[in-house]
Design goal:
The complex is a heterodimer of chains A (275) and B (306). Chain A is an all-alpha fold and 275 residues long. Chain A is built from 14 helices and no strands. With 306 residues, chain B is mainly α. In chain B, 73% of the residues lie in helices and 1% in strands. Chain B is built from 13 helices and 2 strands; from the N terminus they run αββαααααααααααα. The chains are: A mainly alpha (275), B mainly alpha (306). The interface between A and B is large, with 95 and 98 residues.
Chain lengths: 275, 306
């Protein structure tokens, strides 16, 4: 009986915490459908009928769908590059004996510890010299080198790939690159997928790097676009429009999360137990 | 067989050479976009550089300026304060949840659903989170104040983000809200890695909940705690998005500069007033501080192994 009561209390606690996590998003969605005046007067959990009005204010100020498209243009190629090149690098480091393998590993571990802000100024300086400011290339190309993901996948290949499989393929006369593409990549797929989700979300949500690099509003990624809400007096005057803009930026992620939460969470757990 | 052995070493060598080709794209991009920027920042930190023209050598002047700059230290203190309160709440909650879910006496269900909900805030871009809470916490018209007043918890609306006495802690709580699920998932993964026999043996021996937690769980997840702590420290001392977007006046970090973090200060000099050399010195000073604190943490948390 005592255990049962305690269990109820614990469930209560967990539910309160879950509500704390979800409630702000619920308020966001409700308020996105209410007019600015309604919101300033009182709160409610019932939707209003000013969604269209709010949408008009939002779409007059910026084109959020363009922001979406821009974010996709950056996050998709960056994720693909990270996935492929991290996999091939990790595979080479795990399977072959070559000079500099150990040194490369050490450098990768060191760079995993280095905070991102350390290179920010030099990175911008480099992009100025290469005339890459206001271009998506410096947001995409660097994705080829993702030290943390190479580190993880290197452990992963060692765990899941059997060398006898490679030997068999070699005896059959398959070339090394073909072995990688036809045999190794499919075997590594679950690990790559896990890491790709994390890297996609990171790219999608990144704010500081595009903020520094992009000047033309037409090229802004979604987070940079949302951040420009600060400078719109029309929007600031109508909270309903702000809620709607934020909701539009959040809802796709919520939908993706409903389908992929299992993979997303396993990618977090993987990060912790890599030692 | 003998023929094979003769051929094998030669073949091995040839086969291994392909590895250079495989790692080449990574190495090139890594050198250009990871290694070079870090070294270039170091170089610029010893220069007088306004963002154009030829950098002029200054020696350690930028660093002495950082050390004497009271606003840098204020920014560092702000950052530590915001991160510090956040890590206490974040790890506190994560530990509480880990204890609850690893307790075999209660056998709570729904771990994966709760885990997903607790993680959700972490998935949303910090820019969206900033505007959501900025609007919800609005002084005069914010929904949160309306709710508090409707529940008679306060008589007049609270100016959450307008006072230097509350604004930093509001940011701390929002950060904790964003990150406790992440920490919980990592800690829980660590606990699930502990063999079940340990807990069962302890239960048979009649060990209490606290005893089990302090003698079994805690020591075994110490390396993971260290990992959570250090990654949070490295991320937290670089805090930018939330305070930058929730503060008044951008990099000024108002109210009263209480939300100005180190990276906001760096951003101001590096990308607004173009004192690039000075901004680089700020970056390296912050790195030095992160390094020292991480090493100390390793020594303190890591060496208590037995």
């Amino acid at each position: 009986m005592f255990v049962k009561a305690k269990r109820c209390i614990l469930y209560g606690l967990l539910i309160i915490l879950s509500v704390a996590c979800l409630f702000p998003f619920l308020l966001m969605m409700v308020n996105a459908t209410r007019s600015g005046v309604e919101i300033t007067k009182s709160f409610t959990l019932f939707p209003g009928n000013s969604l269209q009005e709010n949408w008009k204010i939002v779409s007059d100020y910026f084109n959020l769908f363009l922001g979406f498209a821009n974010s996709l243009k950056v996050a998709v190629p960056a994720t693909v590059l990270t996935a492929y090149f991290s996999a091939i690098t990790a595979y080479a480091m795990a399977i072959y004996n070559f000079k500099g393998n150990k040194a490369l590993f050490t450098v990768i571990v060191v760079f995993m510890m280095i905070p991102g802000q350390l290179g920010l100024i030099g990175f911008y300086n480099l992009c100025t010299k290469l005339h890459l400011v206001d271009s998506y290339l410096p947001l995409i190309i660097p994705a080829i080198a993702a030290p943390g993901i190479v580190f993880f996948l290197r452990q992963y290949v060692k765990a899941v790939l059997s060398k006898s499989l490679l030997e068999a393929a070699r005896i059959d006369g398959a070339s090394e690159i073909r072995i990688f593409h036809k045999i190794v990549l499919p075997i590594m797929a679950p690990g790559i997928a896990t890491m790709s989700i994390g890297s996609f979300i990171g790219n999608w949500n990144n704010y500081l790097t595009p903020l520094v690099l992009l000047n033309t509003p037409r090229k802004f990624t979604l987070p940079v676009m949302i951040a420009s809400l600060n400078s719109s007096t029309d929007m600031q005057a109508n909270q309903g429009a702000i809620y709607l803009a934020v909701a539009i930026s959040v809802i796709p992620i919520l939908i993706v999360f409903c389908f992929c939460s299992k993979y997303i969470i396993s990618s977090i757990s993987a990060g912790g137990v890599k030692e | 067989m003998a023929v094979n052995q003769k051929i094998m070493p030669k073949k091995m060598k040839k086969k291994d050479n392909i590895a250079y080709l495989f790692v080449l794209p990574f190495v090139i991009v890594f050198l250009i976009f990871n290694v070079y920027p870090v070294l270039r920042t170091l170089y610029l930190s010893f220069m007088n550089y306004q963002g154009y023209g030829i950098p002029k050598f200054l020696g350690i002047e930028n660093y002495t300026r950082v050390f004497k700059d009271k606003f840098f230290w204020r920014a560092l203190l702000n950052t530590i304060k915001i991160w510090g309160v956040n890590i206490v709440v974040q790890l506190g909650l994560a530990y509480l949840l880990t204890i609850i879910f690893s307790d075999i006496k209660y056998k709570l269900r729904g771990l994966s659903i709760f885990r997903a909900m607790f993680y959700l805030p972490n998935l949303i871009a910090a820019t969206s989170v900033s505007f959501l809470f900025k609007t919800l916490l609005d002084w005069k018209y914010g929904t949160i104040n309306q709710m508090l007043m409707a529940a008679h918890l306060t008589n007049s609306p609270i100016n959450w983000l307008g006072s230097p006495h509350s604004a930093p802690y509001v940011i701390s709580i929002i950060s904790a809200w964003m990150w406790f699920g992440n920490s919980f998932i990592i800690l829980m993964a660590g606990v699930q890695g502990i063999p079940k026999d340990y807990f069962e043996a302890a239960a048979i021996d009649g060990a209490g909940k606290w005893k089990v937690f302090s003698k079994i769980t805690l020591p075994l997840i110490r390396p993971i705690t260290l990992y959570v702590f250090i990654t949070s420290l490295i991320g937290g001392l670089q805090m930018f998005d939330l305070p930058f977007l929730m503060a008044d006046g951008g990099t000024a970090g108002n109210p009263s500069g209480s939300l100005q973090t180190v990276v906001m200060y760096l951003y101001k000099f590096g990308f607004q007033t173009y004192q690039v050399g000075f901004a680089s010195a700020i970056a390296y000073t912050l790195f030095g501080i992160i390094l020292v604190v991480s090493i100390l943490q390793f020594k303190i948390l890591g060496s208590k192994e037995d």
